[in-house]
Amino acid sequence: MNVFEQQGVAAWRLSVAPMMDWTDRHCRYFHRLLSRRALLYTEMVTTGALLHGDVPRHLDFDETEHPVALQLGGSEPADLAQAARLGERWGYDEINLNCGCPSERVQRGAFGACLMAEPRLVADCVSAMVDAVSVPVTVKHRIGIDKTEDYGFVRDFVGTVAEAGCRVFIVHARNAWLKGLSPKENREVPPLRYEVVLQLKRDFPQLVIAVNGGITQDEQVARELERVDGVMVGREAYHHPWWLASWDEAYFGDAPSTRTREDVEEALVAYMEREAAARGTPWHAVARHMLGLYNGLPGARRWRQVWSDHRLKGLPAREVMHRARSRERVEA
């Protein structure tokens, strides 16, 4: 029985968003040290990268990362079905289709947010993946494209895709402007309209609806969880990762964690050592993801500077940790 069969809707209660160049397997291992229950997502992996590239490089992950979802980018049903099979074979708990990325590079591949204009194609893609795997197939999307704020557009998109077998929709509560904005601007300029996501939940009570976009505080999480089924947090979780350490108690009813920041740092250094021995992974490829661990505490800046110092890359990770802790020691 997988985590979704065990937890049902609660499996999507809180998750960390897929973020290109950020949520690689090292980042996810770090986040799992902070929260046992949050659902973690890979970076988007294109079907081409899986069908014609280095599959282990894209799909390998540590068993401790469960529950973990693979996000795919693509628009060919047969290719997505094959990529989904690979993801399930590798052990992922969920296969997610990206229908929300607005970047022009992704648009040139005819997938991402531009797929929202072709709900029948998305339905065909979902149907092919649902037929190919036994794990949940989910969709992450925006509430619209360009500057048209038409609720009927996203309602019909969700309805059409749901008929193909998708039961979980993660909704970024902004439109995606396909022209004129960078990916960063697309996360900031189009207005947030959480009420659209709430209306989707009202219109599709049988579906799991999770909200994403602009959520940075516990008060926002609590508010949204009273209205929809789940919350996905993006950059705030990356830049202030210690927030994750409170999630299991606050949102899943677990006992309070006794783990300190120093415990987490120590555990990640042990992981760096294992990765170096097994794969030759340089410690700084892992350490870059934990630089926000002490944010807000005295000495955090100096600690971060030591771990970021390129002159120390030749030293063992444990030595760098000792140096970071000895320079204006931060409190756990």
Automatic annotation (TrEMBL):
Catalytic activity: 5,6-dihydrouridine(20a) in tRNA + NADP(+) = uridine(20a) in tRNA + NADPH + H(+); 5,6-dihydrouridine(20) in tRNA + NADP(+) = uridine(20) in tRNA + NADPH + H(+); 5,6-dihydrouridine(20) in tRNA + NAD(+) = uridine(20) in tRNA + NADH + H(+); 5,6-dihydrouridine(20a) in tRNA + NAD(+) = uridine(20a) in tRNA + NADH + H(+)
Gene transcribed to yield this protein: dusA
Function: Catalyzes the synthesis of 5,6-dihydrouridine (D), a modified base found in the D-loop of most tRNAs, via the reduction of the C5-C6 double bond in target uridines. Specifically modifies U20 and U20a in tRNAs.
Residue sites binding FMN per the record: 18-20, 71, 140, 172, 212-214, 234-235
Residues in the signal sequence: none
Needed co-factor(s): FMN
PROSITE patterns assigned to the protein according to its UniProt record, in alphabetical order: UPF0034
GO molecular function per UniProt: flavin adenine dinucleotide binding; FMN binding; tRNA binding; tRNA-dihydrouridine20 synthase activity; tRNA-dihydrouridine20a synthase activity
EC number assigned by the record: 1.3.1.91
PANTHER family listed in its UniProt record: FMN-LINKED OXIDOREDUCTASES SUPERFAMILY PROTEIN
Residues at the catalytic site: 101
Key words of the record: Flavoprotein, FMN, NADP, Nucleotide-binding, Oxidoreductase, RNA-binding, tRNA processing, tRNA-binding
Protein's recorded name: tRNA-dihydrouridine(20/20a) synthase
Species lineage: Bacteria, Pseudomonadati, Pseudomonadota, Betaproteobacteria, Burkholderiales
Site, as annotated: Interacts with tRNA: 98, 184, 187, 301, 304
NCBIfam families reported in the protein's UniProt record: PRK11815.1 (NF008774), yjbN (TIGR00742)
Keyword 4Fe-4S: no
Record Gene3D superfamilies: 1.20.120.1460, Aldolase class I (3.20.20.70)
